[in-house]
Amino acid sequence: MANESRPCPCDIGDRFDYGGRGQEVQVGHIKAYICKPSASTDKAVIVIHDIFGWQLPNTRYIADMLTTNGYIAICPDFFVGQEAWKPSNDWASFNDWVKTRDAGKIDKEVDVVIKYLKDQCGAEKIGVIGFCWGGAAVQHLMLKNLHLKTGVSLYGVISRFEDKHSLLHPTFFIFGEKDNIIPLEQVTLLEQKLKQNCKVDYEIKIYPGQTHGFVHRKREDINPQDKPFIEEGRKDMINWLNKYL
């Protein structure tokens, strides 16, 4: 039962009826959603879901968007069968819930997915994007995974990896100005630390007036004034991937 005094601050999105263009497959010990372009390509993007899990229609919509831009897109279940968060859950229990789903402990799953993309899909250049929980996971992977070429972290929860900034690969960070989960002071500190420690290309961009989840979960039908920023965020994400993959 939801805690009315502490409701979930996340909007689940607007694509409830979106079925997806791809298919679900078994990749080693985990399930995944995969979508492939009609023309063959050696470029692939791993999509790391947010707290709402790998089956969220809005996340699959973004995976399909990557495919229309020429990429193999795969969204694995990084919760490995554990239940995704529901907006009706008691937000007061979130910290206990997320402790059992550590964004910094997905290396085994990522290795399995990379092997699948290389062996089964012919991928040679692989990037990663992630939202919220998945955005934190992207930062983790950019710090240690040698097999990935680039990453885009969308409103990744900075506090998960606030002491680590020596990125191995070009990384693009997307944040919303009005994000009540990630204060701008944290973004400023991240920028300072990257400037001091990072040897590869990176960019941090803050989108005016935008709240948490805006690129993939903003309700366009309710907030038409936000549509230009939603589209800009998606375009920036694609442009970054195009540049480095």
UniProtKB/TrEMBL annotation:
InterPro entries named among the record's database cross-references: AB_hydrolase_fold, CMBL, Dienelactn_hydro
UniProt superkingdom: Eukaryota
Keywords: Cytoplasm
UniProt KW Cytoplasm keyword: yes
GO molecular function: hydrolase activity
Gene Ontology cellular-component terms listed: cytosol
Domain Dienelactone hydrolase: 30-245
Gene3D superfamilies: alpha/beta hydrolase (3.40.50.1820)
Localization in the cell: Cytoplasm, Cytosol
Family: Belongs to the dienelactone hydrolase family.
Name the UniProt record assigns to this protein: Carboxymethylenebutenolidase homolog
Encoding gene (name): Cmbl_1
